[in-house]
Amino acid sequence: MSLEDELKKKMALNGEHEEFKASTREFMLTSIRHKYSYNFSWLGRPIIQYPQDIVAMQEIIWQVQPDLIIETGIAHGGSLILYASMLELNAACGGSKDAEVVGIDIEIRSHNRKAIEEHPMFRRISMIEGSSIASDVIAEVIEKTRVRERVLVCLDSNHTHAHVLAELEAYAPLATIGSYCVVLDTIIEDMPADLFPDRPWGPGNNPKTAVWEYLKTHPEFKIDKSIEHKLLITVAPDGYLKRVG
């Protein structure tokens, strides 16, 4: 058995190991209460992601070799810098030389914009300020895809069901076959409502419910459970959507 086949078997077993999964769910609950994801940065910018999901995105970017990554939600810019740095590494290893990341946010705070624009990886980044579901913003992003061959999408902005569903309708079709539309913070559905007292989202109204609704009419996407089974600790259960058709 090859190493790859051995790992696939191991990941499948992870998905069946109820005790293992229960322990990771308990970790997720405790770590979210303690804002664990805020502990990390990427090349100097706060990233607000779990290390496991950071590694998963690195693996996807290497596998897909995108020449455009679309991200909704910018915050401090850590994820933009992560994706840009991965594209830089891909280019160094023979990948696309002009690959870029476009980030969209309804508000890009001036100090965050300044820090992102001053970062060495900014040469691979462009930013759009506006609602990710506004027609003019969507049109601007679609225009960027016209000269691209491999597109990867990551949704991480407003986490309500309606907003994420609208983002999926707008941006998931831009993901190319074999690539992904990654929907983050689907974990909200699996957490108690008291974790989000000051937010408009919670169990029953979140990215995971939007994913489930979207997939009812979009068979061209499938949940890549192998990623979830590999990570176990992830903010995106059912959120790694692979375009298969």
Commentary on this structure:
This protein has 245 residues and is of the alpha/beta class. It has one domain: Rossmann fold. The protein has 9 helices and 9 strands. The two termini are 30 Å apart. The model has no long low-confidence stretch (mean pLDDT 96).
Number of strands: 9
Q: Return the CATH class.
A: Alpha Beta
Strand content: 5-15%
| Uncertain runs | none
- The H-and-E topology, N to C, reads as HHEEHEHEHEHEHEHEHE
- What's the tally of helices? 9
Strand order of the largest sheet: 5-4-3-6-7-9-8
Structural class: alpha/beta
Question: What is the CATH homologous superfamily assignment?
Answer: Vaccinia Virus protein VP39
Radius of gyration, Cα only, in angstroms?
17 Å
Overall 3D form: globular
Number of domains: 1
Helix content: 40-55%
In brief:
The protein is an alpha/beta fold and 245 residues long.
List the helices and strands and how they pair.
Elements: H1 3-14, H2 18-33, E1 41-42, E2 45-46, H3 51-64, E3 68-72, H4 78-92, E4 100-105, H5 110-117, E5 125-129, H6 135-145, E6 151-155, H7 161-171, E7 180-183, H8 207-215, E8 221-223, H9 225-231, E9 240-243
Parallel strand pairs: 3-4, 3-6, 4-5, 6-7
Antiparallel strand pairs: 1-2, 7-9, 8-9
Helix pairs in contact: 1-9, 3-4, 7-8
Keywords:
single chain; 245 residues; 7-stranded mixed β-sheet; two-stranded antiparallel ribbon
